[in-house]
Amino acid sequence: MKYISLSGPHFNEFSTPLAASFPGMVLPGNKGHVLEGRFGRITLQEYTCNDFRISTYLLEVNEKVAIYPMARHPITALYIGMEGDFTIQLNNGPGMDMKAGTIGLFYLPAGEQQKSYFDKGLFEIMYANFSGPFLHSIAELHPQLLKMQQAVQGQEKRVWHLPFLPMNGEMLGIIRKTFNREVSPLTMTARITDLLAAFFSVLDQPGSTRIASTHIHHLNTMMEISDYIENNLTNDITVNMLARKAAMNHYTFAQVFKKIFAISPSEFVLQRRIHLAEQLLRNTALSIEEIAFKSGFSDRTHFYKAFSKIHGISPTKYRGDFGDTDFAT
Length: 329
Known about the structure:
Layout: E1 4-5, E2 12-17, E3 31-37, E4 40-48, E5 52-61, E6 65-67, E7 75-83, E8 86-90, E9 95-98, E10 102-108, E11 114-118, E12 121-130, H1 132-138, H2 143-153, E13 160-161, E14 165-166, H3 169-178, H4 185-203, H5 216-231, H6 239-245, H7 250-261, H8 265-283, H9 288-294, H10 300-311, H11 315-320
Parallel strand pairs: 1-6
Antiparallel strand pairs: 2-3, 3-4, 4-5, 5-12, 6-11, 7-10, 7-12, 8-9, 8-11, 10-13, 10-14
Helix pairs in contact: 1-2, 3-4, 6-7, 8-9, 9-10
């Protein structure tokens, strides 16, 4: 079957507010620009500030479709593939497979012809295209960012990109915190910077380009499990219960969870309970017994033992170290 080209009048074009049931990421503004035709539907969102322009594409494809964008100006961008695998071809060169669950950084010179080929299915992609001043402000933070800035300044004619790496739990967590809600420009800039830092922390590890990709479905499932844990810390939480919620057996769940979060499910639950207890100790006048209960510990003794093992001091001493408090213990 041939690919339908969207370079011609094959679609209706309109803008619409995004419904609560919209299946993809939502940028501030909650409005999408829609291309719709027999091939299916493409919903484009854009968010622009002084630092960058973020674009998201949700493609619901009924028939094979090809898109032929061209860069009018040099593009330096962070790429995030959330859903679906597709192929990109640059200036009639060899095709490059773009995988779901990957993140990468690239430079595209002005006038570069890009062809993107999508088979039937659901695809979700995001680009954060950096402004010149923003790229200049962060260029000294990493040698590869400096290389990207030099490519822009020199108007380099070749395409340049870093390895496309599998997203880990930290990266997906940042994305989930950033989208599907209104955020300020300052917060958006901080989150994009956090994503860059998380990307380079993985890239700089030995053998990073050989990391086996965790399927985006597993990443999403584990993030849903982490949300469940966060919202149910006062309840009894077992690994078997979490595995059932993830529709996995105990062994597979524990392996996937540790691969994403770098700790076991039990250690994660304990960390989140201790973190909640720290907040209550610092910011409330609740008694130690009340804090133990609200943090999901069965009794004061269990709480004291777990807290002291992690911090090296008791909860009472931890509270006292935060200064002028008259909080009851």
